[in-house]
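Human:
Class, as today's exercise, you are to examine the entry below, and be ready to discuss the fold:
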Amino acid sequence: MPSRSQKIRLGVFIVISSFALLVLLFIVGSKQFFQDRDIYYISYRDVSVSGLEIGSPVKYLGINIGTIKSIDFDPKDVYNVIITVAVKPGTPIKKDAQANIEAIGITGLKMIEIRGGSNEAELCQTGQFIKAGGSLTEDITGKAEVIANKIERVVNNLIEFTAPEKLEKIIKLAESSTHAMDNINALVAENRQNLYEGLGSAKIVMARMDTISYSLQVATAKIERLTQSDTLDQIVSNVYEVSEKLTKTDLVSTIARLGEVVERTNKLLISLDRDMERGSRDFLASLQKLKSALDYLNEASRLVNEDPSVLIRGAEVDEIPDDDLD
């Protein structure tokens, strides 16, 4: 059996160990419970908060920033649930951020995930409400309702589509379509050669269209080069200068001068006409004289041909009686 002194030593050891454990727990708990925290509130209206517990984590973009301090009903509105969260001081929660209820794995427990927030928005002050976001359960329920509504519409359409009167119409439509397709196939088989020829003509037309398109492109390029060249600018500038000069000149005096020039031109033309007429008469007289000289030469050549001695002895001149003289 242990002695009395051993029991006393054991008792003292247990007391000291218990005291040290309490001190350690106090130090650790003081960091957890006596640390300064920023308090915010979140109001969920008509949203199930099942799975949220006091002490559940509060995260901001996946970082653990605090815990849920309390979950209470709004005494003024029983559809509102007020959740008080305690987060680390200095956490930059923006006014446009949202607090969503997210699941923690597959345990059924949930947490609050704060997301969103822009750099331009103001910071939420301690004691203010953080904008409430959605809930995973609510999202799933809403999507399930949407899917159910769509399935219901599809089923109703199928029921209406498979009604006997509509099935009969569909069968008639299918038979008509089959008959029409048979007629089309027969028509194509009868006119296959014409179709081939038409396709060949269409190819030729398309080739011509390509040629015309190329010609248009070339003409467009030439017109573009012409419009971008300096020649058009010079023509426009010359026309502009002529128009400027015309606007600056006296049109009345210019027209009078043009009239004088026309009158002088008419006089000159009349004088040239007279000179031409006089010259033509002189030219005709000269032609007559030339004709007489040619006649004489012809007569002389004829005499020489008949009697070459005439060139030596000369031509005999017939004496003309005085009685024959006038």
Summary: Residues 36-136 form one domain. The chain has seven helices and seven strands. The CA atoms of residues 45 and 80 lie 4 Å apart. The helical segments are 4-33, 136-161, 164-190, 192-228, 230-248, 251-306, 310-313.
